[in-house]
Amino acid sequence: MMQSLENKNILLIISGGVAAYKSLELIRLIKKAGANVRCILTESGTQFITPLSVASLSEEQVYTDLFSLKDETEMGHIRLSREADLIIVAPASANLIAKTAHGRADDLASTTLLASDKPVLIAPAMNPEMWDNEATQDNIQTLEQRGITLIGPAQGDTACGETGTGRMSEPEEIFGAILSFFYERPLKSFKALVTAGPTYEPIDPVRFVGNRSSGKQGYAIATALFEAGADVTLISGPTALPGPVGIKTIRVETAQQMLKACQSALPADIAICAAAVSDWAPKENKASKIKKRRNHTPPSIALKENPDILARLAKDGPNRPDLVIGFAAETEDIIINAREKLARKNCDLMIANKISAAENVFGSNQNHVHLVSLDDSEEWPRASKKTIARKLAQRIAQHINNKEKATNVRRIEAAE
């Protein structure tokens, strides 16, 4: 399941409006996915963002003027539309929507759209009254009848101070539509919960019981599920990682906080517990720093057992996700211990890896894991954590597909 946009050519048309600033983030997302992105910036668009900022992010020439002698000697409006695999208009102003619907071609953006033979996605952005106006709605209906895909607009507060429908969709949502255009997204309409990182259990205001987890594998899994179309909630312990784009990220510190956040995120179809939750926490969290004093023995710290988040999520009941996957970090007998943990916690699958100085897993960008079920195991050779995450997302999609097929067979047999 490839979610890269490598070798894809996208033409982004940026029209006027305050939402034009969001197009800069959209360019960054498209480039990060490996695509080539060329941009047309309308004259009104230049009132909100500069050609230099667009060029810097796209790493391409920015096209602004229909009557550029150099561009039109090369038939720029034809070439731009022909060389693109997909055309996106974001933001799409009411004016540009109207011109496109009525076939006007008085600038480079509208001329390119009229000359295009490629699929077009538009993300409208305008005042709510303009959006609700009968003329705009007629224009939108005309464009949709011609096969143009609409993304948004969203409801909320707009730049003009009014509230209603008219906000441009967020760059992450538009990027998701781009992925959907190029690829099947097998986890679309599924809700996923992912935990990642360590937990910190406080001893006093400056000290804690914790572990070495970086959160990189969990974050990569959350991103891979999002790329596959899932609605993802990531619950993260303390890490140095930024929240993945497009994913609701809830940051916690302790195991108790992580459990509460997980329970609030239910119901979910998929739960993946990649977090390295501390098994124990100090019974008492001192209100002031424990002072080190000369000739005093080190203080003893009484511990209590933390809640078992994985076992609670996997416990049979109305809120149990359809698929629960745990992680088992082991120093020996990896498969045996992982399978025992899987059975004890009522999981569906377990990802097991060996923790040792030689493997160098914590903080690394690579991992070497085994996918373990009750009756089988499969080794996944050392690879980047992103590769492991995408492979896991693919297996989850296969698992769900097989389960749905089996359910349909049973329904047919029951009907017969």
3D architecture notes:
Helix content is 36%, strand content 23%. The protein is α/β, with parallel strands linked by helices and 416 residues long. The chain folds into two domains: 174 residues, Flavin prenyltransferase-like (Rossmann fold, 3-Layer(aba) Sandwich); 200 residues, Rossmann fold. It is elongated and about 80 Å long. The mean pLDDT is 87.
Q: Provide the domain count.
A: 2
Ranges where pLDDT stays below 50 over 5 or more residues in a row are none
The proportion of residues in beta strands is: 15-25%
Mean pLDDT: 87
- The CATH topology of the largest domain comes to Rossmann fold
Shape: elongated
| C-alpha end-to-end distance | 36 Å
Rg, nearest Å: 26 Å
Major sheet strand order: 13-12-9-14-17-18-19-20
CATH class of the largest domain: Alpha Beta
**Secondary structural class:** alpha/beta
State the helicity in percent bands.
25-40%
Q: Largest sheet at a glance?
A: 8 strands, mixed
Please outline the helices and strands.
Layout: E1 9-14, H1 22-32, E2 36-41, H2 51-58, E3 62-63, H3 69-73, H4 76-83, E4 86-92, H5 94-102, H6 108-115, E5 120-124, H7 128-132, H8 134-145, E6 149-150, E7 154-157, E8 163-167, H9 171-182, E9 191-196, E10 201-202, E11 208-209, H10 216-227, E12 231-236, E13 248-251, H11 255-265, E14 270-273, E15 280-282, E16 303-305, H12 309-314, E17 323-330, H13 334-345, E18 349-354, E19 366-372, E20 377-384, H14 385-415
Parallel strand pairs: 1-2, 1-4, 2-3, 4-5, 5-6, 9-12, 9-14, 12-13, 14-17, 17-18
Antiparallel strand pairs: 7-8, 10-11, 15-16, 18-19, 19-20
Helix pairs in contact: 1-2, 1-9, 4-6, 5-8, 10-14
